[in-house]
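Re: export button greyed out
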Amino acid sequence: MSRESSDSKPIAEVRVGPDLFHALCWVASALAVATLAWIIYEIVTSAWPAIQKFGFGFLGSSSWVPNREVFGVFPFIVGTVASSFIAILFAFPLGLAIAIFLSENFLPAPVRQVIRFVVEMLAAIPSVVFGLWGIFVVIPIIKIFGDWAVKNLGGVPIFSGPAYGNSMLTASVVLALMILPTVTAISRNALTAVPKTLREGAYALGATRWEAILGVILPTAAPGVVAATILALGRAMGETMAVAMLIGNSSRLSWSLLSPGGTLAGLLANQFGEAEGLQVNSLMYAALILVVITLFVNVLGELVLRYTQSQTAGIR
Amino acid sequence: MKPLPFLLIGAALAGLSATSQAQQLSGAGASFPAPLYQRWGVEYNKLHPDVQVNYQSVGSGAGVKNFTAGVVDFGASDAAMSDAEIAKVPKGAVLIPATAGEVVFAYNLPGVETLNLPREAMAGIFLGKVTKWNDPVIAKANPGAKLPELPIMVAYRSDGSGTTYVFTQHLSTISPEFKEKIGTDKSVTFPVGVGGKGNEGVTALIKQTPGTIGYVEYGYAKGNGLAMASLQNKSGNFVAADGEHGASTLANVQLPENLRIWPVDPEGANDYPIASFTWLLLYKKYDDAAKLKALKDFVTYGLTTGQSFSEELGYIPLPAPVVEKAKAALATVQ
Amino acid sequence: MDNIVTHAPDFFSNSQAEATKAIARSLWNRVLTSVCVALSLLTLVPLVSIIYLVLKNGLPLLSWSVFTQLPPAAGMVGGGFGNAVIGTIVMVGIGLLMSGPLGILSAIYINEYAPASRLAQAVRIVAKLLTGIPSIICGVFAFAIVVSTTGRFSAFAGGVALAVLMLPTILLTSEQALMGVQSAFREASYGLGATKFQTIVRIVLPDALPAIMTGIMLAVARAAGETAPLIFTALFSQFWAKSLSEPTASLSVLIYNFSTVPFPHQIQMAWTASLVLVAFVTLANITAQLVFSKKH
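Workaround output, generated via the alternate export path:
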């Protein structure tokens, strides 16, 4: 207080600052909400003819035949959910491992710094390049794996043949890598934000490093880690170009991860440029469904978070 | 604090746009002719530094949308515009054939360098009825070729494209079953195969797996060294996919008044069966006289000098009678 | 927690059990460390593979002239993508100018001013929903609100599309960053008599800045590499841009264009452009980290 008055600013002036700032923050928040509302309005308006014509049948129908004006996205919904969840299945443990690795002192700081930049560099690689990398590097590997899996694990539905290079598995693996920087960077931030005192407290009680990490640090950082995962999942579901290049874009449903599939965002990327009339409406309807799926995932994430927090309530 | 960036941008927008001197023309649409149109733009700019023509591929559908909305100076489409679509354009539309291309059956079958595909096999493969390379339908047309007992892997375009339109249009014409089960469109649903995004995606699929066959633009197959099948045309001959046979197809086409035509099943003995024009979309009227003149000059350049880049880039040059009719259509633009 | 008192009578055997347990714990500790390090290094394999692919294909054409020349058309040799480099910087810049303040101020509102308010809850949901919007929709949206109304494709429209794309990442990471600031800092600041505004601007924001920068860099990286939002808004240009209100080239659209043609020179150029894009974003990232971590 005395420091402020020594700056000899009139009290009134100081008061205008915060109030204006508060208002400014409010306006920004309102604008953010308005933006989404506007986007959804745009999507719904252009989707309306398709919504009217197909209703909820759109979600359950498996045929997408533009020249017959028959549209249904069930296989693409399945593909979207499957590919992004498999991607998270890969990216979450790896991303979290790297995040822990980067926030602990297993290796000297400069080494960690380099690894961190390599991971964040990944975020800058354009989707098209991920797609090309998938074509040149991942597909040949997945093909070898696929042929092996069909021969040895063919009985398991998810590995039933024939194995294709452009498949659900290929797309998921590349997606996992694409979202890895998001998982890692945000989780790392959350881990480093855990107050030192908590960790020191755990050590003082005789905990080993990993007892401290698993028992204290991770639970404390859980909201950040969950936020990172949700952000990454949203990114995986919304990814267009790389998926369209790798997934094989088929609307035939299959249990096998080695079969071609399709996603909603990939469908949009594939067909939006050439679409006309009802097909455009249906594509926008598909985009709307994607938004709804994202909403579901977020609600799910919120529940997971609440559960984690209730489990670790004692520590926090 | 916040409105500041907007003000700055607004000022920049207002200030900078006034200083631009060169005549700018922008176009958007079909992806197939994009390399050629961009080449025209760059070459024309060398001759006329005061005119900058931009063309970006956004897809024929989006191109027609942009053209109808009036946010471009010209559009381009592989599938021409229907009368209903033209009616929606406030300033009216003139279609001008600007170049042409072929769709080829490219395949990857080690040991088989030339392949004849009879009409029955062309449709049969994409209907999922011809499933082995040594199927009698194929074997009959290829005496002496060592066709392996390999399953046929089908590769198709997963993105909407004029290529798919032209391809399915031909197959629908020669096969009633194809017409009934699959039909003609820029994106259709095939009962078999894997979808690749773009010509390059299908090319990659073909290259990766022996036994794969797919359809791509001639330029891609040529540029990537893919083997191309000779296709049986209406008169029963097997015709190789190349510029010569494509030119023969186009030369035999009788252009109607509106210049909108597909040689869906050409009759000439040497005609390659799957070839098509692609169109520039111009407005009937332009308000800006300078823009009109620049655009007309540019399109005239493309129809004449510009045709000389066709072969090199894998397109078929327009036959002289088509160029004359296109120029006549251009003259109606005001 | 073992209670020493209950074990005290059986002193001898207890210490042995304790010793075994201690060894087990330390062993477990080592196993987990090895697993963590192994997983991290394993993940580096694909990362290095991608970067190697970009370097291998991108380096041959890399020279100073790619920054000063215009894109080659099909069948031409030489050329570069100077206009696309500028276009990308300008459009990402416009996007950041809009989404940065919007995202950070919203994050401040929902974390500092009114965390429990309806608006804050709405903002949180909105931000998460925006992350799932396919990038192509950002393009369609910006087309509808800018291109349709101004009647032309422009760098400004491209910037708006990118702003929409960047907003959720910046907002959510900023919120996380602000949450990471210990409440003790705020309390100390209030204790010294600072106002809320002073606390936020002088204490909370500086402490959260490195984490906010991570979010901004993630957003910038993604925006710089996205094709779909720009193709429907900024289109592309073969020439140098003279204003923000004309079709503008960008690296991502150039990469998309050139990677989808059958012409070897253009395909090579696409790789070089990818390399330049990745290098630029990484440089920006490193600079930002250095500047802001020092300040901190």
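The mean pLDDT of chain B is 86. The button fix ships in the next patch.
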